[in-house]
From TrEMBL:
GO cellular component: cytosol
Tagged with keyword Transferase: yes
Coiled coil: none
Protein name, entry field: 3-oxoacyl-ACP synthase
Residue ranges annotated for the Beta-ketoacyl synthase-like N-terminal domain, each copy included: 47-219
GO BP term (any one): fatty acid biosynthetic process
Protein keywords: Transferase
């Protein structure tokens, strides 16, 4: 018999001050740019300075967010570590290739090569806590985080594990920004984060972040919410999305009218926000709606921020004004649906409920 899957703790490093779990978007960082970097926590409180100097930014962010999640769940170790990332430690990859060119393929140190692989984050976390269990990294573009959730959910439902650390992380480096700016995926002009949806321009504001969660088949005092369902789709026509959503909800014994909040992944890209606008004025027109990429910015695992946001809303029973997309109020949010896509592909649905 399948068991329930609970979100027992969270840890986040993002463009906002989310590394402090005692707060919930109390202070909002407003930016007016085409890219947005994370607010760095005090890494010295989590990582010895000598080690931190050799760590890629993605590893440092993940160390903080994973340690925060483990500490809140009251755990020193877990049965499995599953990470989703679109780019891995791309900064060290770029540096290693540059070293090859600059040194004529000679006298290369292995450190940057070792730290440049996509599974470096999950490996470093495992080494840090001494976890010898299942360790896996999903590199599935904009559904990398959701792929990690699906894996963890199946293991927990079938009693293959009790506690699993699941995360999504992506770092931002100049090479990647320049490439995406060249192909028009990043806005050509700075966008005010408070007016992102009315920018009426192509591209998104690129960013970075790391979000980790302890999922378990046992509820505890720190539990935030229950993960009911996750589904990904590589390609769906805009006209067929409402049908897919209704089928997904029906599969999990829910309906649109049962949703207390819908969180959408609008990123201000005039070419692709129509996927969300069609739902806002159609299927979800009578449902409370929220968005988040004006706070998190856009990157492959940005949906981890939406997952963090949903878990906080369900536990604290409050929806911050800064994320509200319409004026429909809800005083007791019990069930939240997250819908995300990137440039018309890699669609995902995540359903959470209060427990």
């Amino acid at each position: 018999m399948n068991k329930s899957v609970y979100i027992n703790s969270i840890g986040s490093v993002s463009v906002q001050k989310t590394f402090d779990n005692s707060e919930f978007l109390n202070e909002i960082t407003i930016y007016n740019d085409t890219v947005a970097s994370v607010l760095n926590p005090d890494y010295k409180a989590y990582i010895p300075p000598a080690q931190a100097r050799r760590m890629a930014k993605g590893i440092k962010m993940s160390t903080v967010s994973s340690q925060t999640a483990l500490r809140e769940a009251g755990l020193e170790n877990v049965d499995a570590i599953i990470v989703g990332t679109g780019l891995g430690c791309i900064g060290d990859s770029v540096k290693f290739v540059r070293d090859i060119i600059d040194n004529d393929e000679q006298f290369l140190t292995p450190t940057r090569f070792i730290q440049s692989s996509h599974n470096t984050v999950s490996g470093q976390i495992a080494l840090g806590i001494g976890c010898k269990g299942y360790n896996f990294t999903y590199v599935h573009a904009a559904v990398s985080f959701e792929s990690s959730l699906i894996d963890a959910k199946m293991q927990l439902e079938n009693d293959e594990a009790k506690n699993i650390l699941v995360g999504g992380v992506d770092e931002m480096v100049k090479y990647h920004v320049d490439t995406h700016r060249l192909i028009g995926h990043i806005k050509s002009e700075p966008a005010d984060s408070t007016k992102l949806l009315t920018s009426n321009t192509k591209g998104s504001v690129m960013g970075e972040g790391s979000h980790f969660f302890v999922l378990s088949n046992e509820k505890q005092e720190s539990t935030y919410a229950e993960l009911v369902g996750v589904e990904t789709y590589n390609s769906i026509s805009q006209e067929n999305i409402p049908n897919k959503i209704e089928s997904f909800l029906e599969e999990h014994h829910s309906a649109v009218d049962d949703l207390d909040l819908v969180i959408l992944g609008n990123n201000g890209d005039v070419d692709f926000d129509g996927y969300y606008e069609g739902l806002s004025t159609g299927l979800f027109k009578d449902r409370p709606q929220a968005y988040y990429k004006h706070l998190s910015s856009e990157f492959d695992t940005a949906s981890g921020f939406a997952f963090w946001l949903s878990a906080k809303i369900l536990k604290m029973q409050t929806i911050p004004e800064v994320v509200k997309l319409n004026e429909i109020e809800v005083s007791n949010p019990l069930k939240i649906l997250i819908y995300n896509q990137y440039r018309g592909e890699n669609h995902s649905l995540m359903l959470l409920r209060k427990c």
